[in-house]
Amino acid sequence: MKNSATKERIGMGKWKLMLFLAISFMVSSLPVSAAWDGIQTLSIRWGHTSLDLNEASPAYSTGIFIGLGASLNPYMEINVTGAMEATPRPASTGFLSAELSFALLGPVYRSGDYGGSGLNSFVSLALVATPYGESQKLSPNYLVLSFTPIAIGNAMQGKRENLLKFGLAWDFRAFADGRGARFSMLWSLFSVDSYLIGTWSDRDIRKQIVD
Question: Which of 190, 203, 109, 104 is nearest to 155 (CA)?
Fold first, then answer.
């Protein structure tokens, strides 16, 4: 009886923690609503990633990811990506990520005929889902705080290169399950944003439609 009661309390605590973290993640994006002026940039993001979050992956495994990124206001972006293992076992595992990024050195876009900052840095907060437990089903279990020191280019130019990103990932599911505080490193040598909305040509087309 005691064991079942203990397990029940742990289970309730786990879901309360997950609910709290999900609400906290959503609340962190509330400043967007006050300044949102529509999607001014939209990009296909792809690049390299480590797979240290996946317990089934060797420490030396390398992954690739692809997804979409969009601006929420001049200083904030959201990126939704999916990653999979590239080596040594292609497509054997991966993860999904929803990330909010905050520009530190300048806006990612400006109104009129002016481009965003051509040199930038970003700090990001992501909620990551990886294969979890015996079933290995994708489940949200990591919060990742990361920093991208170098980002070159902007939407007007059609491309931005993001270099040497690194972050610290907290396994909150392990903490909720009573396995203690577990942390991992997540890093990306490079990623590229190829812009679909916000380029010179896109702005010219939209001007012609308005005129």
Answer: 109
Q: How far is the C-alpha of 76 from the C-alpha of 24, rounded, in Å?
A: 17
- Any idea how long the chain is? 211
Give one DSSP letter per residue of 175-209, joined into a string: HHTTS---EEEEEEEEEEEEEEESSHHHHHHHHHH
pTM above 0.85, yes or no: no
d(CA 79, CA 66) in angstroms, rounded, equals 10
Question: What digits encode the pLDDT tens for the residues 86-106?
Answer: 887 888 788 999 999 999 999
Question: Which residue, 163, 164, 165, 154, is CA-closest to 194?
Answer: 154
Number of folded domains in the chain?
1
The residue segments making up the domain with residue 180 are 2-210
198, β-bridge pairs: none
Kindly report the CATH number assigned to the domain that includes residue 63: 2.40.160.20
